[in-house]
Amino acid sequence: MKLVTAMLAGASVLTAVPAFAAEITINSFGGAYEEAHRKCVIDPFTAETGADVKIVTAYSADAFAQLRAQKDAPQYDVIHFSGGQEIVGAKEGLLAPIDAAKLSNAADLYPFAGAKMAEGEGPAYQIAAIGLLYNSDELSEAPSNWADLMEPALAEGLVLTDISNTYGLFGFLMLNQVAGGDLDNIQPGLDAVKAMLENGAFVVSKSPEIQQAFAQGGTVVAPYASDYAYTLRKAGLPIKFQQGAEGTPASYITANLVAGRDNQDLALKFIDIELSPEAQACFAEALRYTPTNSKTELPDEVAADVAYGEEGVASLLRFDPEVIEANRADWVIEWNKAIAQ
Fold first, then answer.
1. This prediction's pTM
2. What is the spatial distance between Cα 85 and Cα 68, in angstroms, rounded to a whole number?
3. What is the mean pLDDT of each run of 10 residues along the chain (341 residues)?
4. Which domain CATH number covers 287?
5. What 8-state DSSP symbol labels residue 96?
6. Do residues 325 and 313 both lie within one domain?
7. What stretch of H or E contains 63?
8. CA gap 80, 145 in Å, rounded
9. Range of the domain at 302
10. Residues 203 and 155 grouped into a single domain
11. Are residues 264 and 272 in contact, defined by beta-carbon separation less than 8 angstroms?
């Protein structure tokens, strides 16, 4: 657990916002993400309100478990999820509905990002877009379709990620969809993967193994998240990101208002800053997450790594998190059988 402290911005700030408490509690995801969170949101929030931010470093599943355990006496004011936990949290009454009129940036969000705020599902303030990472030194043209990955000619240079990894799962579900499957039937995707492996593709479990595969040579393409292409380039590898023409699976990162807390005005202010074009441009620059505010402006080199603008976000699709959660364990068993053959 970490605590961000800041000098109060003076009596004038406290006078201007008398309803605001002196501190809010949020979760963040640690490491580089938490560093960006501080720079892009927390520091500007503290400067504007004079309030401190107490950070609990907790990923989505752990944060949601804590929220449930604290149901009668919640400790978080704003809670962030990347796995769709806001859908269940809203249904269980753990999250409070958000009035879009109380957020100055809500009107500028792409419609998908804030569609269910009134039902308690917090807005998406950034997106991890899943597409095709490719070696630009080895491929003269970017692979433009998910179906390209099924071509035998690409198989020996293809790296797939195990579906125990969320990004790997989203990539597989997209391949399954292209192969004719859906969330009720993943067999077409499993058959496609078996064919890829027979033709020379291989499977890794974690993102560092993708980097190793590209660094060792021979790997030319891997379905994965846009932010990781940037990580690989920072490591000196010539890796670029390309959205597949059939669609771009999206992992929503959401900011949610916790029910039952007495400083919701301050919490809403924090969420509003996360939705601002300035904060989202900052996150995109630092980590290459896709902005959800339509007024966010990015330089060309950053825009190339994300799903940017009206055209870029038009192909985003979200596989139902509730269906995924209900079936994931069974899918992993079937996946393991398929890749073992």
1. 0.89
2. 11
3. 36 40 92 97 97 97 97 97 96 98 98 98 97 95 94 95 96 98 98 97 95 96 96 96 97 98 96 98 98 98 96 96 95 97 73
4. 3.40.190.10
5. -
6. no
7. helix 60-69
8. 32
9. 2-127+250-317
10. yes
11. no
